[in-house]
Design a protein that fits this description.
The complex is a heterodimer of chains A (230) and B (713). With 230 residues, chain A is α+β, with helices and mostly antiparallel strands. Chain A has helices at residues 3-19, 59-67, 116-122, 125-131, 172-183, 185-190, 208-211, and strands at 23-26, 30-33, 39-43, 73-75, 80-88, 91-100, 138-143, 153-157, 164-165. Chain A is globular and about 50 Å long. Chain B is built from 25 helices and 25 strands. Classes of the chains: A alpha+beta (230), B alpha/beta (713).
Amino acid sequence: MNSVGTCKTIDDIAMALLSSGHAINATLHTSVSLGEPYYVRVTWPNNQFTLTDYVAASYDEYLALLRERQFSVILNDGAILQISYDFRRDTVEAHRLAFIPCPIEFTQDELDDLTIEDFLAVLGEEEIQSRLRSRPYLRFDYNRRAPETEPFSHLQTCYSESRIPVCGPLLVQQFTGFIFKNFYPGIARDLPLLTALTEEPLAHNIRDEQRSELHFHFHRVVRSLQGQAI
Amino acid sequence: MLDIAYGSVAQRPQVQQLVEALRRLPVTGTLYIGYPVLRIGDEQVPSDALLTTQEHGVVLFDLAPLRTPGADRTQWLAETTERQDDRYRALYNKLLANRELTNRRDLAFKVNVVTFLPTIDDDYTFEATDADHVAGYVATLPPIGEDLFRRLNAAIQRTRNIKPVRRRENVKNENSRAGVLKRIEAEIANLDQWQKAGAIEFPNAPQRIRGLAGSGKTIVLALKAAYLHATNPDWRIGVTFQSRALYQQFEDLIRRFSYDTIDDEPDWTKLQVLHAWGGRADAAVYRNIAVSHGKEPRDYATAKRLWGSNAFEGACAELLEAITSNGATPQTMYEALLIDEAQDFPISFFRLVYAVTEQHKRIIWAYDELQNLGEYAMAPPAELFGLDENGQPRVELRNEENSPKQDIVLPVCYRNTPWALTIAHALGFGIYRPQGLVQMFAETQLWRDVGYEVQDGELELGHHVALKRNTNASPSYFAALLQPEDAVVCAAFNRPLDEARWIANEIRRGIDEDELLPRDFLIILPNVVTAKSESSIIMKALDAVGIRSHLAGVNSSRDVLFMDDSVAMTQIYRAKGNEAPMVFVSNAGYCLDGFALGRKRNTLFTAITRSNAWVRITGTGEQMSQLIAEIESVKRHHYRLDFGYPTAEQIQHLQVIHRDRDDKELEKIGKNLDSFKAVLEDLQSGNMLLEQLPPETRKLVDALTAMLGKTDE
């Protein structure tokens, strides 16, 4: 896995979702230097991480992400995907893989010529209440240099303090496969690209004490576009 | 020639005397009545009249009555002198803030102040004149240089603050496209006569401002709002529109003009920038009216369920009925209301705001006739506002001499080249469409109003006419700096990928060879349904040549359309109100034919008229041949529109057949066409014979055959 290949994979997924009509918006990704030789971040343009901390998981924070274009993909129901990797040469130093559902339910057909924010703004109070959905965000973070008190790889959800251990850093398609197979199975069937693992998953990296607790685990298996283990 | 712009003090009789006395002066300049607004002490006071001419500089008039018989002469002289001095200081200080008008620490010209009296009947201790002597007085004053005069106008009209001129520091070659743009951008400094009239003229009654895309209507409305607020700080003034993206634009413009006019932030409780419908958290015109009258406002989703694609029309009509039924008198909520993009509003909205506006009905609406992208046609005032209890139109617009105009047309298009504009009109109306016109102005005079002149024939319903853009209707810098062949280029491709690659290569070349920046480009995707898949192809093609791009106007109308290092792509709704030096209209063939052709052709018109300089129209498929042919026809006719003007009945017929259709209608048409196709295929294959058709159906086939025969003829 390297920065160039990862960038291409993210772009292929983003554009596939956009061109197949499953996304409202998507962006091509870029490599940004992190100030040291061979240390780069593959991410969406103008990434402002402070905005993507998504601490309160509030409606206003969601709107801020829309306005500031802090996304890799925006799906048709308004859910935001953020995909970002830090590489030092060919080693994954960190990643942020976020799935942020829209707190208000809507379908793309309802938008007409309105933007997402404008559509949400014109809904009446009762309408908004009836469309409110309590769907937590999921953020898979990895930091190879995480402090000892934290897992190297973890899932943050529901509460900003949560750090549910994950057995190792994820490939892009492990993340997209997880999201789409579980939450958008129709799209997963439409676009095998989302779930195919064409390279071996990264080495596990989990502390012993976390291995013995409830955590996310995956086997290191390569899967073809047809879903078969190779 | 002396332009006259009538502002808020136009009703005073002395104004007419002054105007008549100065009107025939052989000068180039403007006589502003009631403008600009001066700060005197803590008050904002509109100047009575200000004359700015290249031949005789600046003259500020103080319109005063004669001393009342019996009044103390010494005191009257002292008061008048003080009034002159106050106005002099106020104007001097206002102008001194503009560095470009100074010579070191003083103004580079003299500000002359004179009191204009009904008659001169005394020796005065101050400069005084009357109708008989004012022309002579002005003639004694020295000229100011052309460049200084230009800067003076910009300062007086506040156009220097409209848009900061982009520095374009990367430009090394003055003949590159960027070099040309730099020169064009520097030229746009002064409002012209018509924009001045639009901004300053105030008839204390309804006023309509029409103009082409790019004629400055939004700026004119913002200036007018700031001016009305400065001269009438207690008025409740609303500025409203449909595109949320205009919020920020209006607030910024009004704030800037307000600082220039009154050196202060406007009182936003009195001068409100409001969306027309609004959301939960927005103050908005419809919502405010509902709440003020104790009615529950309809939200978008509910209105859509009730009234479908006419949601806003239905909501406004319902509210109007609720607040006027049983003889109820609606509350007065506004002393003045300014409406931008008026072509997007339904009639019921106009009638609703009419009901809640003060008795003078100071409703000012601005629109571009051909930008109507929705269901609502721009009706004449009688239809917009309806009839009174005597059956007479509630609103009639009159333009009388020596009075502020009620009906203003802004004929000069600053944004588009005359060639792009002519092609846009030709395509929008279908002038050279082989199957005939798609739509047409019902008022023939409108062609003259928007800057065309008759070259041949008669501009009358049912007659042949040839029209061409009046050379005065476009700024001269287009002809001086650009070439018609380069202004509009149309290209057809076999596949969307080829089209995308061509676009990407053109942009790459524009950046590498012509010093353009990514933000100088705008790619418009007219077909909303296929826009996303098209955008992904174009995004990848741009990425392949090292250029970033983004799809704007889908997440939020508050997101920035243009970014420094990325090329913007957008659908037509977000493109409205925006402009870019080089515009690509991709998949343009979509706009050529099919149902709702009026809207599609309007979309093409709007897309082309987003361009400041260059337009590239691209697409794939058979329709592109027709599109290219229509554009070539315009060029072959040397940018003349040569056509048979339809009759009133024919215009109505066009409106019916090319009208917008809602989804249900389109679905039904689709099903009918499928069935029709299946029958034809059965007939063709021999699976069914003509003789086997039921008699009623056979008659229809015979009628169709006759129709086709006529078409061939």
